[in-house]
């Protein structure tokens, strides 16, 4: 089986410099959705027809298993498939997909291929309003005769509700010849792929139809309006699958999954959260409203309060995080760690039961277990040119508003007094303070405003 993906169209109505097929749904290019689905069917040849925005399309979607065929100029869908012919073998079926129809399910395509085993098969849908689409013309017995495009249709043909989705399976052995017979004498002056249906019928090749499970599977994108509509359809499908899988969603219409989200039992997610890349939420994880998690692993029982932003981080079980916590790449938190509001952690590890509850910056640090990082603590990890490491050993207590000038080590069980600027290692089990002795000046008066 061959698959040909048509992706040469310009997409004028997108009003964008980005080629249409590269616009994202769920964070992934439209055509990438189609390529991924195509790949899941293990075709022997996968050909993408490109044209508008050529090099960008090719370099963005490049993969070893894709053959590319340039269509320049674009003279219609039949002309587009013609460009793929040299790359195709002439055995089996050739499945034609559109690069701007991203949500077709593999199961639907398998059904279409099954229907087309002994001939040609068209994926069709019945639409209440079929305006704009090619109509499926059948004879009195219901046998498919041909497809007529909107612009070429008679008034009677325009009343047909069954339309061509554009997706079809064609016998590879007949493809080249049928395409060579296409003419462009029609209302749009284009070589219509759809005209091969009448050619198949004339040769007595059986023509079948198959239908998708849902109409959304065959919706295409021609404008930002349709792009936004498809995004919502897709997100709602993902949310519904999560609900079925046992996740509690405060509102299935207010979640965005732009990647892969794995979850355990009794996970709950509040409104407005965005998940990107690969996110794993173990059993009983709770995610509060308006959190953004990208490539994050969260251990069982961890609770994340509102407005957190985590990226490339691993969070242990039974943690309490947020609100307003930020975990940047390379953060690893052990079990029962607390990270509170306005705490930023980068490329650092925090051992079990350590806490940084308020207003801190922790970068390039190795923090042991049961450490308390006081409010306002900052690791000074950067001298403007180089980054240095801060090590805080188990059971240390860092007083509020301390600066740890790296490289520096706070020993096991050490305490730093509030406001310490640590430039040398703090010995274990001792109190280290760096501030001057407190004095009170007698006789001092506040400056007064002088009246003019
Ligand atoms: C096409 C079908 C129509 C069907 C409709 C479904 C034809 C003649 N008509 O019409 O029966 O109901 O799709 O949406 O096939 N493309 C190229 N090169 C070209 C022309 C198009 O790659 O020269 C690509 C486009 O980028 C797009 C797809 O083919 O992905 C469909 O093209 P479009 O112009 O949208 O076809 P329609 O007129 O909508
Ligand atoms: Ca179209």
In a nutshell, what does this entry contain?
By secondary structure, this protein is of the alpha/beta class. Helices cover 17% and strands 33% of the residues.
Biggest sheet statistics: 21 strands, parallel
**Average of pLDDT:** 97
Strand content: 25-35%
| Small molecules (ligands, ions, cofactors) in the structure | uridine-diphosphate-N-acetylglucosamine, calcium ion
The third-level CATH topology of the largest domain is Spore Coat Polysaccharide Biosynthesis Protein SpsA, Chain A
Radius of gyration: 31 Å
Architecture of the largest domain, according to CATH?
A: Alpha-Beta Complex
Q: In CATH's first tier, which class of the largest domain applies?
A: Alpha Beta
Determine the N-to-C terminus distance: 93 Å
How do the helices and strands line up, and which of them pair or pack?
Layout: E1 2-7, E2 24-25, E3 28-29, H1 30-40, E4 45-50, H2 54-61, E5 67-70, H3 77-82, E6 93-98, H4 106-115, E7 120-126, E8 135-138, E9 144-148, H5 155-158, E10 162-171, H6 172-180, H7 196-202, E11 207-210, H8 224-244, E12 248-249, E13 255-263, E14 268-269, E15 273-281, E16 286-287, E17 292-298, E18 303-304, E19 309-315, E20 320-321, E21 325-327, E22 331-333, E23 338-346, E24 349-350, E25 355-363, E26 365-367, E27 372-373, E28 378-380, E29 390-392, E30 397-398, E31 403-405, E32 408-410, E33 415-416, E34 421-422, E35 431-432
Parallel strand pairs: 1-4, 1-6, 4-5, 7-11, 12-14, 13-15, 14-16, 15-17, 16-18, 17-19, 18-20, 19-21, 19-22, 20-23, 21-23, 22-24, 23-25, 24-26, 25-27, 26-29, 27-30, 28-31, 29-32, 30-33, 31-34, 33-35
Antiparallel strand pairs: 2-3, 6-10, 7-10, 8-9
Bound molecules: uridine-diphosphate-N-acetylglucosamine and calcium ion.
């Amino acid at each position: 089986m061959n698959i040909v993906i048509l992706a040469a169209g310009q997409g004028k109505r997108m009003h964008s410099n980005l080629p249409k097929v590269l616009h994202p749904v769920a964070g992934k290019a439209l055509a990438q959705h189609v390529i991924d689905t195509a790949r899941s069917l293990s075709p022997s040849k996968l050909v993408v027809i490109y044209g508008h925005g050529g090099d960008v399309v090719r370099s963005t979607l490049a993969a070893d298993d894709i053959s590319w065929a340039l269509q320049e100029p674009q003279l219609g869908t039949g002309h587009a498939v013609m460009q793929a012919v040299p790359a195709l073998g002439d055995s089996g079926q050739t499945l034609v997909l559109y690069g701007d129809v991203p949500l077709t399910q593999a199961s639907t395509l398998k059904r279409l291929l099954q229907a087309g085993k002994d001939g040609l098969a068209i994926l069709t849908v019945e639409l209440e309003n079929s305006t704009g689409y090619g109509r499926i013309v059948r004879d009195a017995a219901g046998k498919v005769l041909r497809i007529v495009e909107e612009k070429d249709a008679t008034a009677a043909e325009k009343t047909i509700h069954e339309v061509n989705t554009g997706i079809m399976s064609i016998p590879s052995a007949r493809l080249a010849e049928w395409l060579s017979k296409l003419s462009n004498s029609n209302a749009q002056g284009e070589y219509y792929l759809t005209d091969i249906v009448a050619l198949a019928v004339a040769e007595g090749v059986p023509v079948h139809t198959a239908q998708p499970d849902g109409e959304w599977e065959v919706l295409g994108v021609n404008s930002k309006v349709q792009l936004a509509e498809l995004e919502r359809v897709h997100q709602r499908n993902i949310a519904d699958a999560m609900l079925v899988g046992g996740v509690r969603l405060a509102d299935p219409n207010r979640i965005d999954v732009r990647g892969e989200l794995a979850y355990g039992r009794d996970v709950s997610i509040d409104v407005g959260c965005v998940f990107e890349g690969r996110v794993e939420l173990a059993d009983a994880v709770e995610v509060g409203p308006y959190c953004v998690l990208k490539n994050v692993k969260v251990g069982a029982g961890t609770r994340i309060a509102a407005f957190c932003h985590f990226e490339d981080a691993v969070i242990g079980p039974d943690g309490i995080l947020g609100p307003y916590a930020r975990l940047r790449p390379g953060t690893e938190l052990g079990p029962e760690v607390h990270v509170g509001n306005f705490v930023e952690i980068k490329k650092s590890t925090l051992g079990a039961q350590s806490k940084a509850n308020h207003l801190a910056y922790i970068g390039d640090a190795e923090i042991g277990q049961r450490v308390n990082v006081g409010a306002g603590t900052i690791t000074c990890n950067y001298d403007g040119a180089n980054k240095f490491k801060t090590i805080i050993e188990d059971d240390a207590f860092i007083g509020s508003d301390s600066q740890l000038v790296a490289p520096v080590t706070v020993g096991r069980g050490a305490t730093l007094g509030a406001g310490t600027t640590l430039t040398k290692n703090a010995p274990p089990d001792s109190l280290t303070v760096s501030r001057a002795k407190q004095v009170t000046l007698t006789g001092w008066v506040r400056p007064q405003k002088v009246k003019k």
